[in-house]
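Dear support,

I submitted the protein below through the web form. The confirmation email said the job was done, but the results page showed an empty box. After a refresh the structure appeared. I'm attaching both so you can tell me whether what I see now is the final result or a partial one.
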Amino acid sequence: MYLDVRGAKTYAATGGKDFDPSLPTVMFVHGSGLDHRSWALQTRWFAYNGYSVLAPDLPGHSLSAGAALETIEEMGAWLADFLRASGAGPVHAIGHSQGFLDVLELASLAPELLKSITGIGTAGEIPVNPALIEAARDSAGAAAEMLLMWGFGADAQYGISAVPGMQPIAIGRQIMASNPLYQDLVACAAYGRGASVAAQVKVPAQMILARKDRLTPMKAGMAFAETLGAKVTVIERYGHMLPIEAPKQTLHALRTLVGSLEQAA
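What the results page shows now:
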């Protein structure tokens, strides 16, 4: 569906069902250079199992208009405006990589909009290799090639896919090459508020981490989970791109936390 957010046409995937703000809502926030397609399996499951789903394309990404935002702080503020425009009540907010940094800022700025937060393949800060930023400045396609080679585990590099007939690295390359990857990477590299924001988070939190993550090493995620007081799930054998690379395992971990919170409510 499309929403007007700050005067710009903004796309949000809803998992194949009309958005219903009366249902418990789960929001999915994509990582650097990506879009709503990162969450194809997860959004569909939640939409068809008693939830409403919002998976926005951030400004300037894929189907959303507007200029790309330049800082994580701006992205968090934009997410607050997006949720208010959607009419959703407090949501379970899930972010992959940079998307989780955006969710942290949302938690700092507008905690009343959240029921829980989940970080996937992430930490409180995400240093970015300067060579990758330089490559992205010159060519999003070339940088995407580098990022995806580092970002997927060995199985994906050999062409193994959880979705028959689809190659996740090729899909990721196509998406990233057309999106503002450079701006996203610069924003990630500059962000340093994770620990201070974590101290303010009052909602339940979890981290879903990949044993073979070479972009945001698992030890960084584990250390931040301790700071955040978050439950940790480790997915073996896979790399940084968990929502695409290990969609079923990622979904199972998400269902556990979100489902338990909704049952308790």
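Response: this is the final, complete result; the empty box was a page-load delay. The mean pLDDT is 91.
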